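User: For my dataset I need records formatted as: sequence, then structure tokens, nothing else. Please produce one.
Assistant:
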Amino acid sequence: MSTAYILVSFALVIVLMIVLISKFHVHPGIGILVSSIILAIALGYNWSDIEGNINSGFSGTIKSVAIVIFLGCILGTVLEKTGAAVRITKWAIDLVGEKNIIWAIAISSFILGIPIFADSVVILLIPIVSLLAVKTNKSMMSYGTALYLGALTTASLVPPTPGPVSAAALLGVPLGQAILWGALISVPSVIGATLYCKTLKDPVLPKQEYVLAAQNTDEAKLPGLTQSLMPILLPLILIGISTVSTLLSPESGFTNVMAFLGSPLAALFAGCLMSLVLTGPKWKTKEVLNNWVEEACHSAAMPIIVTGMGGALAWFVKDCGVADTVADAVAGSGFPAILIPIIIAMLIHVITGSNALAVMTAAALVEPMLSTLGISPLAAFLACGTGALMFKHTNSSGFWVTVSMSNMDVKQGIRAVGGASTVSGFIGAALTCLLWAFHVI
């Protein structure tokens, strides 16, 4: 089987996958499964082996990520339902002062994007942001975009949101490392996007219904700040302690205990248990212990399935030599290898509209190529996350949620959301390239 045939088959299958998802609106899980089967057939795999190989790739990938995604979705659901997200936003406003409201919006969105989907952050906070726009006489084009971009950036780069969790698992990046570096890259990316948002001054008034909703919010019923932040901070603290302990004293009994308590599974489960404090007396009701968990199951199902299917596709890409062939071609061309995951993630995002899908699929495709390309798993993780941020536009649910709830028209939305997401992604990608060029990652 010639190299040209392998490369053409691989390229056509990827195009097919993208067309199925973006043009015909096939669910990503099915689109990737169909692509995996067609690639296996095209590359001459024994028909009787295809099912087993798909199952191996699927199970090998989700075994380390499924429970983490599930627990992350539970944590996000509790923060949404209890008003903790609103409390964190009010704290950010008090922190920076009313003259810097847009930075308060960006900070709170940045924090909340770690456990909560970006679309949900907008839905949760649009009333309070609309009220702030009225009080400060600022445009919703600026405030609404800042609200979305903070969460979008961390949801693409910082676990435990499903996209980066899945990418870290596919690439073999320890979760503590992914959180630390993802956050470091996210900070300047969000700062750049917020500065861009400050230039958006077209007069766009908020929708009156959201202003009224914020005015009718009973602040006394909101949880306290410490209670609101601890479910987010506790998992990060446990993972951090485990990482430091392993470096300083790898053989100690404390390190042995922290190896479990600081594992992604135990740390996130501790965060979920801590979040029960937010529910007050309701913590032992069926609504909290069953209904909210069931809602989280629905949120977790899609990323788990897509991640597993991405692992199945990656199995064939690696086993049949496609990865080595592509990587050798890139290495021989002199093209900067770090740009490959950035470009793949960017193209998938622009075409499908899903940054989570772009992060996961790009990670699955580039993982088999890493050794030949000379890219570390961490560098690839950051490249996939930043590439998947660029140019959010009209094929994205997050775009429409932000634009419609912020009272923008489509043209304003493309300039605001599309421009800010590109600024965020470009800054993150540029920093990733610099860190890779200087052998930091």
